[in-house]
Amino acid sequence: MQITLIRPDDWHLHLRDDEAIKSVVAHTAERFARAIVMPNLKPPVTTTAMAMAYRDRILSALPHNSDFTPLMTLYMTDRLTSDEVIVAKKSQIIKGIKLYPAGATTHSDAGVTDIRKLYPVLETMQREGLPLLIHAEVTDPDVDIFDREQVFIDRHLRPLTRDFPALPMVFEHITTRQAVDFVRANEGTVGATITVQHLLYNRNAMLVGGIRPHYYCLPILKRESHQSALIEAATSGESHFFLGTDSAPHPQHAKECACGCAGCYTAHAAIELYAEIFERANALDRLEGFASLFGPDFYGLPRNRDTITLAKKKWSIPESYQFGQDRVVPLGSGESVNWQLVR
Ligand code: DOR
Ligand code: ZN
After folding, report:
1. Whole-structure pTM value
2. Cα–Cα distance measured from residue 95 to residue 217, given in angstroms and rounded to the nearest whole number
3. What range(s) does the Amidohydrolase-related domain occupy (predicted)?
4. What are the binding residues for Zn(2+)?
């Protein structure tokens, strides 16, 4: 059996920098036509000039004759100005501005400390129609890590959607039933990406029988009832839910240690794993909308014209891949996948 889809895009991706880009971008470029590239480098990508230079580094790391377009983002800090927003919009290469609450996740120390101070900048983004991409977790130490997303909805997202009713927002990597409900209640301006790992697993995969660091990402995997809500949303055919892998490679030694960092690497088999999820939910006919149509529609970009084909054919995911001078352990390492990209 085979399925053919309009070529998909990845609306949330980490490509890292320097030599590491080359190790991972080929996996994405084989499957996806475009990807929204996250700006959480060290130092973060805070200006259009920095994003243009980063884009050049990505393009020169691409394999020959690959046809892949990186869509760039800026990292919002307390110091972002309205002038920079206008420059970003004019450039046509910046497709969104990413809000990380300071300290929420990997390389987020330069993130936003008080969103209210950025209201003038958000005003400009709303006027320019430049989407706000949100890592929606509070960082207060007194909020339980499993509740950080739903608390962010009440404390920050509700006020934001009330105060900026025309600002397009992407609620990134949603992980809870509350997030699904919030996106549905705000359809039109709020879209959401859903990752492979949050559809495939719940927190048991990470914690039962031993701590498995390769399932640790942020927002953290939640309980099974939330996983079911995400599967229902992704396969619903509703256009506000679309594909974003959040593929986030880290060197093996940085994950397999006493304080392992957050991030799952999924670029090696992303569309194949989504196909598996949709097939299991009896919704393969809705994969194309989720993977290839709703994202570009939300961002106001043209849909891709070419296609990819997946064959129902088992293959084994390698234990690890090269990652710069290191190795990265992919999600599902050593396991098999039922769908294969026809090359
Ligand atoms: O698990 C994660 N890894 N979540 C994020 O928000 C950042 C990402 C990374 O950059 O490694
Ligand atoms: Zn991310």
Report:
1. 0.98
2. 24
3. 10-303
4. 12, 14, 98, 135, 173, 246
